[in-house]
Amino acid sequence: MSYELLRDFADSWGLAMMVVLFLAFGGWAFRPGSRQISNDAAHMIFKDDDNG
Asked: How far apart are CA 16 and CA 14, in angstroms?
């Protein structure tokens, strides 16, 4: 494989794949039902807090 072939692949299909993955990960984070999981993760560091 030459540099030119890899460059052409990255410019076309590589970019398309990154856009698809970005949309999939964004949709996964904002899907219905993930609010409680995100809230639990955000408050996990305060779980064993003894100051009230």
From this structure: 5
